[in-house]
Design goal:
The protein has 266 residues and is of the alpha/beta class. It is built from eleven helices and eight strands.
């Protein structure tokens, strides 16, 4: 069993001054594999290459229709990650669908609760805790009792962060697509101010802050410079797309360079 991880409230970075952690979401590798019956590309091989190149963790989002990650992938990755004790395993999904069975069996370091519908194309909004908070509370408590850190996928709304803490979450993952859509445009500064305010509200409530969705090599450094104390970013689609040009290992190294640039003095 993993030790229960206490909530974090920090000004910047991770414990010990380490930079933001990079968790690689491998769903798109599984999606490509599923178009044939040859078992390639291998999700396990991709995870190994990412970890060898310096990824801090692996994320999977096994949806009920198994259009990308399948149940056996979740279990096989858990076995692989036992050989990488320094790396984090993050299993995300809707706890009212299929997520909790994986959490109970695998007890990953972290689970991220995402309010996806069963047929939803991709994650596109955070939790409405006024509507769903009481239903989430016992599932959060169960996961934490198993030693699993719980992160809630949330829109960047400062007023919602205290609610996330009140229902028992350890962290929030800020849904970053609005920032990514505004990157390089007139609205970028306003979006960064929104996310910074949400992160500060989360930390003031005693929550750790993760972030993810449409972050990429172009926009990641600016986001981390502007938004205080992001402990972890989860990146999948853009990272796998970049890997088609750069190779998977070099892509992971380049994302880590983006993270280090964000922490460098101007």
């Amino acid at each position: 069993m993993n030790p229960l991880v206490a909530p974090e409230s920090r000004a910047a970075g991770r414990p010990g001054g380490a930079p933001t952690a990079l968790s690689v979401n491998l769903n798109k590798v599984a999606l490509l594999r599923n178009t044939r019956h040859l078992g390639i590309p291998s999700v396990l091989r991709a995870a190994t290459l990412c970890l060898r190149a310096g990824a801090d963790g692996i994320t999977v989002h096994p949806r009920p229709d198994e259009r990308h990650m399948r149940g056996h992938d979740v279990h096989e990755l858990a076995a692989l990650l036992r050989d990488w004790p320094q790396a984090e395993y993050n299993i995300e999904g809707n706890p009212f669908h299929n997520l909790m069975a994986f959490v109970r069996e695998q007890r990953p370091q972290q689970c991220t609760f995402v309010p996806d519908g069963e047929g939803q194309f991709t994650s596109d909004h955070g939790w409405d805790l006024a509507a769903d908070g009481e239903r989430l509370r016992p599932l959060i408590a169960e996961a934490r009792a198993l030693g699993v850190r719980v992160s809630l996928f949330m829109d960047p709304l400062p007023e919602a962060m205290a609610l996330a803490r009140a229902v028992g979450a350890d962290r929030v993952e800020l849904y970053t697509e609005p920032y990514a859509a505004a990157f390089g445009r007139a609205g970028q500064s306003a979006q960064l101010a929104r996310f910074s305010a949400a992160a500060q509200a989360a930390q003031a409530a005693g929550l750790g802050v993760n972030a993810g969705h449409d972050l990429n090599r172009d926009n990641l450094s600016d986001f981390l410079r502007a938004v205080p104390g992001v402990l972890e970013v989860s990146i999948g689609h853009a990272l796998v797309a970049d890997a088609l040009e750069l190779g998977l290992a070099e892509t992971v190294r380049d994302y880590q360079r983006c993270i280090r640039r964000a922490g460098a003095a101007p």
